[in-house]
Specification:
By secondary structure, the protein is an alpha/beta fold. The chain folds into two domains: 117 residues, Rossmann fold (3-Layer(aba) Sandwich), CATH 3.40.50; 215 residues, Glycerate kinase, domain 2 (Alpha-Beta Complex), CATH 3.90.1510.10. Helix content is 37%, strand content 20%. The chain contains 15 helices and 13 strands. β3 and β4 form a beta hairpin. α1 packs across α15.
Length: 360
Amino acid sequence: MRILFAPDSFKGTIDAVDAAAALIEGWAAVRTGDDLVSMPQADGGEGTLDVLAACSADPTWSSVSGVCGPDGRPVDARWLTLESGRAVIELAESSGIAMMESLNALTATTRGLGDVIRECGSDRISVALGGSASTDGGLGVLRALGVRVLDESGQDVPEGGAGLLVARSVDASGLAGVPSDIELLTDTRAGLFGPDGAAQVFGPQKGASAADIEMLDGALQRWAELLADAGLPADPFMPGTGSAGGVGFGLCALGARVSGGAERVSELTGLSAAVPAADLVVTGEGKFDRTSLTGKLVGHVVQICSDASVPVSVVAGAVDSDVEVRTVSLTDLAGSSEAAMADPRRWLIAAGRRLAQKVR
């Protein structure tokens, strides 16, 4: 049998690459003759670079030191060049929320992402947009690429959302180093502003108060107008423009296109092409319920398998029993959710064994 192991990360406990390895270890302990293939997945958020590297025959890692982190401190950031020559950049490497010593929705910046895009120098890039710390509409990215954002006195505005609040004009005459092919990897459907926009939906998790959210939402609307006036128009209502605090919009103003994160990663890793030749696909995530089947990574994997008439099993930390998919619950194996989360690798190995034992 040929088995593909294509889990997402189990958030906060184990990443997708290690989860796939643990499942394979468990399966191989029971069935030694099967062809077991590790194809960990991501949805365009944190961990995207690692799963692409794990599924690539000859990936090339590059890095840059001293780019501007989300709170202004210098950070080191990596990117990956695939065999095709396309460079993949992960926002969380340079502008991620995990890098913040303390959350600050008004000062966190995406300038580091722009630094990486400029340093990378590739004309074809994919940008994974998950895990951002800021709500700056991509202001930091654009500034790193030569755009000036000015206040009413004609002075450069501060970094972050605070800069959006006082921005009154944009000068794009110095824009340089913009790749001709920019693809955005995100499964966020939010637009730039409004009830379902960047500030309203994601502001609270970035430390924004109710007052901050109201101000930022209005500033993002003005930001769209300022960029259009400067010859950088984009549709602020297009799904995905609100991803990463509006970075999606800022990059769309430079000609980027939005791609579904899970769908595109499944293509780049080769999973979509590999499924029809498989006898079984094993995927997984932290919690599996009906919402997993609509817009989440595991739901996408299940759909690929359904379209190809290939059986699929889901391993999850917790499982809603109302879902009509073959599942294994780590909580059930471990006896409690606390035990499962304390040692996810052990229980993923056990899950791999359990799945292999069920094969006839």
